[in-house]
TrEMBL record, chain A:
Chain ranges of the ABC transporter domain: 5-256
Subcellular location: Cell inner membrane
Key word Transport present: yes
Matches recorded under PANTHER family: DIPEPTIDE TRANSPORT ATP-BINDING PROTEIN DPPD, OLIGOPEPTIDE TRANSPORT ATP-BINDING PROTEIN APPD
Protein name per Swiss-Prot or TrEMBL: ABC transporter ATP-binding protein
GO CC entries: plasma membrane
One Pfam assignment: oligo_HPY
Keywords: ATP-binding, Cell membrane, Membrane, Nucleotide-binding, Transport
Membrane topology listed for this record: Peripheral membrane protein
Keyword NADP: no
Family to which the UniProt record says this protein belongs: Belongs to the ABC transporter superfamily.
InterPro entries: AAA+_ATPase, ABC_Ni/Peptide_Import, ABC_transporter-like_ATP-bd, ABC_transporter-like_CS, Oligopep_ABC_C, P-loop_NTPase
Example GO BP: transmembrane transport
UniProtKB/TrEMBL annotation, chain B:
TM segment ranges: 29-51, 96-118, 139-163, 211-235, 256-278
Pfam families associated with the record: BPD_transp_1 (PF00528), OppC_N (PF12911)
Lineage of the organism: Bacteria, Pseudomonadati, Pseudomonadota, Alphaproteobacteria, Rhodobacterales
Topology class, membrane: Multi-pass membrane protein
InterPro entries attached to this UniProt entry: BP-dependent_transpt_permease, MetI-like, MetI-like_sf, OppC_N
The ABC transmembrane type-1 domain, residue ranges: 90-278
Family, similarity comment: Belongs to the binding-protein-dependent transport system permease family.
Protein name per its UniProtKB record: ABC transporter permease
Domain of life: Bacteria
UniProtKB/TrEMBL annotation, chain C:
SUPFAM superfamilies, A to Z: MetI-like (SSF161098)
Extent of the signal sequence: none
Topology of this chain in the membrane: Multi-pass membrane protein
Keywords (A to Z) from UniProt: Cell membrane, Membrane, Transmembrane, Transmembrane helix, Transport
A GO-annotated cellular component: plasma membrane
Pfam families: BPD_transp_1 (PF00528), BPD_transp_1_N (PF19300)
TM stretches of this protein: 12-31, 102-122, 134-160, 180-204, 245-271, 291-314
GO biological process: transmembrane transport
Keyword Transit peptide attributed: no
Compartments reported by the entry: Cell membrane
Similarity comment text for this entry: Belongs to the binding-protein-dependent transport system permease family.
Protein name per UniProt: ABC transporter permease
Keyword Transport in annotation: yes
Amino acid sequence: MSALLAIEDLRVTFNTRYGQVTALDGVSLHVNAGETLGVVGESGCGKSITALATMGLIPMPPGRIAGGSIRLEGEELVGAAPARMRGLRGADIAMIFQEPMTSLNPVFTVGAQIAEAIMLHQKVSPDQAFKDAIALLDRVGIPSPDARARDYPHQLSGGMRQRVMIAMAVSCRPKVLIADEPTTALDVTVQAQIFDLLNEIQRDFGAAIILITHDMGAISEMADRVAVMYAGRVIEEAQADDVLDFPQHPYARGLIDCIPALGREDHALREIPGVVPPLHLLGAGCAFADRCEHTNARCKTEKPLLAAHGHHPAACHAVEEGRI
Amino acid sequence: MTDQTTQSSYKAESPALEAWRMFRRNIPALVGVALLAVIVGATLYGTFFYAGDPFEVVWAPHEPPGVTPDFPLGTDYLGRNLMAGMLTGGGPTLTVGAAAAAITMVIGITLGALAGYYGGWVDNLLMRITEFFQVLPALLFAMVLVTLFSPSLWTIAIAIGVVSWPQTARLTRAEFLKIKELEYVTAARAIGARNKRIIWRVILPNAMPPLIVSATLTIGVAILFEAGLSFLGLGDPNVMSWGLMIGANREYILDAWWPVTFPGLAIFFTVFAVSLIGDGLNDAFNPKLRER
Amino acid sequence: MSSSYLLRRTGYGLLLMLGVVVLNFLLIRLAPGDPAVVIAGEMGGATEEMLESIREEYGLNKPVLTQLAIYVGNVLQGNLGESFFFNQPVSKLIADRIGPTILLVITAQLMSIALGVFLGVIAARKPNGAMSAFVSVFATIGYAVPVFWTGIMLIILFASSFPIFPVEGMQSVKLRDAAWYVQTIDILHHLVLPAFTLAIIYLAQYARLSRASMLEVLGSDYIRTARAKGASEKSVLFKHALRNAALPILTVAGLQFGNLISGALLVETVFNWPGMGRLAFDSILRRDYPTIMGVLFFASAMVVIANILTDISYRWADPRLRGRS
């Protein structure tokens, strides 16, 4: 089976004042049509970089794709012509961002911004595009869409703006929809509505969704499959239920352990001691070694590879050696 | 944050030292310092090495530069020594520039501090006055003041100060509005400090970095002002200045380029040096901006 | 935009203008010497008869507040007094000269904004590129050059070496009776050097400002959104980014207007441009106070109007401010 979107061994580096750092260190992911892939991890683990690389939006310089491939329906996107990427962006691959408050242009009406996305990829008149935009606003559950289309972003609430972002993203019926922390900035009640909407949209439009989040609750609600990332690598990947019920990697176990019960405010990752090490300080060993209670000498010197040792693939020496 | 009031000497010194370290590594700023040092040095001590009365007619008019060794920059339309004018002409320009900038800062900081600190009707009144002064075209207003009160170095400096303070006042006010909400100001108030002390001893020192930058740039603007007024013939008629040299010779520019070119270059390099220093200070106080 | 906002803004502008009138009055009163002699002009050698008629007209024998009322009343009726040097009403003198000044100032303003913003946008595309370095050096130089000296240097350059632009006045004498379009072209031809001289300083500042403003905007989330839609780089720069980066540029453009008029004063003197600046220079040399005060009044009025227009366009450009006061 060939996946709709397949990322293989992707390496992205950035030039910083600490020298060159490796933001993505051989990431492989794939998503099939109609499927939702959850990508979890703390901030700085490379989730968003993966998304931006897929969109062709890594700022270069200072960024650079040092190796690997990203294929959409078999077409190679790494090194594709800028014009080709522009044609794909917003049409075949669309993205929803974390910050609905700042992701819309403050000086244009939301209707115009959606219409622009439509006109960039479809041959329609401006009037028709605006009508389509209103229909999309209606579709994403915005009341009186006719009037709202003529509003400016600052006149809408955060939840409404995120609905606008979704309407814009799905305006050209993309094959892959990347949602980067789409609900982090929103109230808990609005979060649930946005997830419902994404599920509906997926049913109607048949898009594959890549949901990037640090919230395991969102994963359990949305994802079919899960990839756990840490320090620029995928460290565990399996069906969502498997990861949720039988996490292998100590980091994944930590994440699962702190899923809040009954929709409490999520205190998620604070309960794993320590923080993600800065990328320029990554050594030869496992990036999680300093925070892990199962660390031994090998963990400090040799990077573990993603391989099925236990229940499902995980990149951990302790799992491989059967110590946990 | 509260220890800032108790250990103010230590806390106040370290950012300044850090800024100094940044400044020391800023090559354009150092070029500015060197350039300004040369110009100020030539103005202060140049006449020891090269004596000459800038007003005295000493030679044939319009002697080109580099021809007669006694008059390396040539002579003007009356046959006056341009080298002498160049060396003495910086005096009024630099003096008035510095004095006018000082007056600008005193008026601007005082009014801006009161407006920002007290708020309410004080702020309202002072800001309306500021807006009123911003409506008057500065050079024109300065010209009127100088003409009414007869030109001398002092009236010129005061006139430039009177027309230039609004921007400083706005900047000071904005800084005060920001800083007065910080914890150490509340702490100072909590230990019973009087308003006067809080304004001048607690808030003002912390508002200094942007004000120092602004003061530097104000010197540059004031120098250009002085030059403009002298050029128009509104400087002190008894003192030779670069602007006056340009103004006096401008009728004859098609006959001789040098009498207007050299003083113009002198003004340009002075203001250029000052603004390089200003940019350097700005970078030194805001290291984050540099990473752009 | 609410009309009540416009009304309030205009009312405040009129109040500021009233302030200028009062200031004019105070300046004449504060000047050393007999106000009648001040008004007549120290160079005039006015006769006792003239001074008496001035005292009569300005009510100088009456209490100060009455004098103020008379002065304000006169200005409200459009009477700015009589120039004893030019022997004409001040309002007439200014009416003849305000047009060229407005033409010069607005041309310079548009020129500096258009060119400056263009340079700034190009520089912002590569924050560490050669264009960025050029813009910051150019901005520092533009700030440091005395505007009157730039004008003189351009005159030297264009009068002898490249005589393609006229270096003096606004119209060629021999074309005074030519057809209107010939005259228009002639005026525009004369406008090139003065406008460019005046524009240079601000051009540099706008370039620096729009570079900084664009850099900030280009880092924002909505620019990423525009790119994610598949918008072209040109559309990202000139549509999505510039519309937002223009807001601080607009603010500065409004604030600069007063400085622009100050600069015009010098440029008009250098190029013999027959505007209010030239008039101010002539009248100040003759200590012709009624004319000087009239010029100050009208120049301030231009700044007030420019500020109101800036406010209006700012509200038009930034939807977040619409409908707010």
